[in-house]
Amino acid sequence: MARDSTLRFGAQTDEVTSLLRIVNLVRTGEATTRPEIGRLTGLGRGVVAQRIDQAIEMGYLEDGEFGPSSGGRAPRTLRFRSDRGRLVICALGAMHLRVGIAALDGDIIDQVHRHWDISRGPAETLDTALEMIDEILARQPEVEVWAVAVGVPGPVDFASGRPVAPPIMPGWNGFDVRRRFEQRFDAPVWVDNDVNLLALSERARRQDDAVDLIFCKIGTGIGAGLLSHGRIHRGANGAAGDIGHVRVRDSEAQCRCGKTGCLEAEAGGWALVRDAEAALADGAGGYLARHVEEGGAVTPESIALAAMDGDALAISLVQRSARLIGESIAGLVNMFNPGVIVVGGAVSSAGEIFLAEVRQRIYELSLPLATRDLSTVRSVGDEKEPLRGGAEMLREQLFDVTFPRWFADGKPSIDRVIPAS
Predict the structure, then answer these.
(1) Are 133 and 90 in contact, with CB atoms under 8 Å apart?
(2) Exposure of 67 by Cβ count < 10 A (0-12 exposed, 13-18 middle, 19+ buried)?
(3) Cα–Cα distance for residue pair 248/233, rounded to 1 Å
(4) What pTM was estimated for this model as a whole?
(5) What is the tens place of the pLDDT at every residue in 383-419?
(6) Which run of H or of E encompasses 263?
(7) Radius of gyration in angstroms for the set of CA atoms belonging to the chain, rounded to a whole number
(8) Domains in the chain, start-ordered, CATH in brackets?
């Protein structure tokens, strides 16, 4: 708790400002001893000691081990209390639910996964997600939930946390996702497109806070997350990066969004399944045909595996998808000039069969300057990626965006962090 009325009411006095800065220096690892804090802040030894005592009393910092000596007595290090709160992450996919909890430093503590069809609607989906969250929280010591992240496979108005006309999420348009979690945990909640979480996960994995990166996910649908100098570019309303619904030249394919000729309707995972099933019905043979004869389902994953095993039908479908996606990414490269393109999702698991075609189209259609230092790589495919990304998004919103608003309270609250919509 805060020590006096000045801190309780969060007034930005010099005392509160310097205290906030000291906590952030320790939290980010820029300074971990009292002498380092004094050098970076310019505060005297007595003031530094007083502020650190306040931060310890408020529960933000604690003493750690002794650091290396520079000749005199070894200084005691300081640690941010990352165990003081929990972050809850709920990553919804087209065909799965994945939830996890993390410490305040972003470390994933526990997770659970379930196959799930997002088209079952928001009520049943969120009930199931909350049950899964309760399951993993029950395995942990009783620690307060400080914030919740929800990733959804569709466009999101980031300010309100509501999906907007998501093509693969019937019944979700305008649904107040945030409210269910706020009621359950009495904590601030942020909702974002799932591919933005994957882009943030890549930023954390690379430990590059200033990276210019595009994460392109080719799963059941297609989307892109854009990082500009390490910050997610969502656009005015949260629609930035939705390349799945750009028009493919000469295409008349009907898309699930209601339009015709969308990239997703030609190159997304569901489109590949559609085309594969049509070819198999016409008598196509090979690995994929045998897979179906043995009772297997045609999925984006099975098509990618068949391509890697040399199936001619699967290879042709994957390579065509890659060429179309490469053309769309090339437009982003010319406009956005990223340093890294990361390709993930079920279709991309075909590996170099897919990635080589993407690279070729990007280099053919992009400006030489835009591709001079560009690298195009596959995602590592770690199942924790969306959970790590959700934790990164929460840490960014809590500590980089809203920390001064709730710092003096000792923990975030909905009214301090999320403005009324």
Answers:
(1) yes
(2) middle
(3) 24
(4) 0.91
(5) 789 999 999 999 999 999 999 999 999 999 999 998 7
(6) helix 263-267
(7) 24
(8) 5-80 (1.10.10.10), 86-200+384-417 (3.30.420.40), 208-378 (3.30.420.40)
Tell me what pLDDT residue 8 has: 46
82: helix, strand or coil: coil
Q: Rounded distance, CA 328 to CA 157, Å?
A: 23
pLDDT of 348 higher than 80: yes
Mean pLDDT of 107-127: 96
How far is residue 213's CA from residue 200's CA, in Å, rounded to a whole number? 10
Task: Say yes or no to pLDDT of 353 above 80.
Answer: yes
pLDDT over threshold 60, residue 4:
no
Instruction: Please check whether residue 113 is in contact with residue 98, taking contact to mean a CB–CB distance below 8 angstroms.
Output: yes
Tokens of residue 361, six digits? 């189209």
Rounded CA-CA distance 20/408 in Å is 9
**6: pLDDT strictly greater than 50:** no
For the segment 271-328, what is each residue's pLDDT rounded down to a tens digit? Answer: 999 999 999 999 999 999 999 999 999 999 999 999 999 999 999 999 999 999 999 9
370-392 in b/e form (b: 16+ CB < 10 A) is: bbeebebebbeeeebbbbbbbbb
**Residue 218: strand, helix, or coil:** strand
* Predicted local confidence at residue 59, as pLDDT: 94
| 46-74 pLDDT, tens digit each | 999 999 999 999 999 999 887 665 656 67
Give the three-class secondary structure for 253: coil
Q: Are 255 and 265 contacting, i.e. CB atoms less than 8 angstroms apart?
A: yes
**Which 3 state secondary structure label does DSSP give 260?**
strand
245 is written with which tokens?
């619904």
Locate 259 and state its tokens. 């339009």
CB environment 325-359: b (16+ within 10 A), e (fewer)? bbbbbbebbeebbbebbbbbbbbbbbeebbbebbb
> Nearest to residue 313, comparing CAs of 261, 278, 363?
278
Contact call for residues 248 and 263 (beta carbons, < 8 A):
yes
Q: Three-class SS string for 381-411? A: CCCCHHHHHHHHHHHHHHHHHCHHHHHHHCC
- Average pLDDT over the chain reads 92
Task: Quote the CA–CA distance of 97 and 94 in Å, as a whole number.
Answer: 8
Is the pLDDT confidence value at 76 over 70?
yes
Other CB atoms within a 10 A radius of the CB of residue 144 amount to 12
Residue 70 DSSP code = S
